[in-house]
User: What shape does this take?
Amino acid sequence: MSTSPSWGGPAWEKRVRSSARVRRASGKSVLVTGAAGFVGMHVAAALKRRGDGVLGLDNYNAYYDPDLKRARQALLDRAGVFIVEGDINDAALLRKLFDVVPISHVVHLAAQAGVRHALTDPGSYIHSNVAGLVAVLEAAKAADPQPAVVWASSSSVYGLNSKVPFSEADRTDRPASLYAATKKAGEEIAHVYNNIYGLSITGLRFFTVYGPWGRPDMAYFFFTRDILRGKPVSIFEGPDHATVARDFTYIDDIVRGCVAAVDHAGKSTGSGGKKHGQAPFRIYNLGNTSPVSVSDLVSILEQLLKVKAVKKFVKMPRNGDVQFTHANITLAEKELGYHPTTSLHSGLKKFVRWYLEYYSTSLSKQASEEDRSISS
Ligand SMILES: NC(=O)c1ccc[n+]([C@@H]2O[C@H](COP(=O)([O-])OP(=O)(O)OC[C@H]3O[C@@H](n4cnc5c(N)ncnc54)[C@H](O)[C@@H]3O)[C@@H](O)[C@H]2O)c1
Ligand SMILES: O=C(O)[C@H]1O[C@H](OP(=O)(O)OP(=O)(O)OC[C@H]2O[C@@H](n3ccc(=O)[nH]c3=O)[C@H](O)[C@@H]2O)[C@H](O)[C@@H](O)[C@H]1O
Assistant: This one.
């Protein structure tokens, strides 16, 4: 027996139209998928603040604490952003959204994120990162007018590359995790939709993004929780105790990069520009260009939290993690005007301030207990 969808109807359409209404000259009407997620919430809020019409879509899955996603939704609700609850694989829902509002841009952030979880639930990566991306691109190419698409790829596509810093032209054919493989597959699939249907598509390879309202499955987040609880933190080490490092990138810098990519999407200048009338197909690194070791990350957290961490140094497990990432951002600087400004110390200071405030309430303390099972 087919159940009626949880979306649709006059009141629902009214909320969709109001949320997507453009409130500034030359404003854009943007669909942000994954809007209840960490990056999605910040990007949706930034676009709304400048007067764009913004509509969200998210399935509020339980990969990590859905209460945190609901709390982000409440923030966007107050800003006038409606997040439609649904799955990006729901073709009828996507078609309905494009029918109800003239969407000019899609910022596609919905995905199964996280590198290590792929060992536990590989199917979720195919469902959201491959099938889900195809569903979004199918809806975009069928829409009239077609929206420009900006979507999140990942630094993990550089896989086992040893030449740093990573540039967009470097090889990406040796993924270390299923997550990375689905993001690489996404880049190839996006190229097909640019080639056949002339979709303007910009892929953004984010480098380990962190900040307030972040993800409990990421190390900076659960390290903070465990340090405060006096629980041991496992610091991964490479072969011969070599450090493991990431080009940690603060959320506000990533948001500026995403908004610049939206504004640049329609233009045909720069790499992948219009050739023989072809719509642009571009890929950019969005990183911080200053990798920091995990061990130094923990030291900064100890200093900010004023608590000594209980440290365990363990050999990096074969779980799909790579030893280091480091972004060459020359192309994004030149074509998007992307210039990261936040050091890890100052970014973590803002995260810790948010963390202490958010988890100070009893309700969210209980939530953080539930979260632990995912990230430990
Ligand atoms: N945070 C990082 O360090 C980082 C780094 C590189 C790339 N990325 C990519 O950036 C994007 C956003 O990441 P994030 O850190 O905000 O993660 P997140 O998990 O907080 O956000 C993703 C959101 O998408 C939603 N979602 C997942 N599958 C869906 C589906 N099938 N239908 C509808 N909604 C679905 C989730 O409920 C979640 O709210 C993802 O594509 C991720 O792979 C993130
Ligand atoms: O840039 C990306 O594309 C990715 O960024 C993020 O992945 P990562 O860079 O792996 O971040 P994260 O898990 O926080 O581990 C941070 C560091 O701590 C190390 N790490 C981890 C766990 C632990 O217990 N100990 C440890 O040392 C670990 O080895 C690593 O060196 C996103 O989650 C992912 O969605 C993906 O998009």
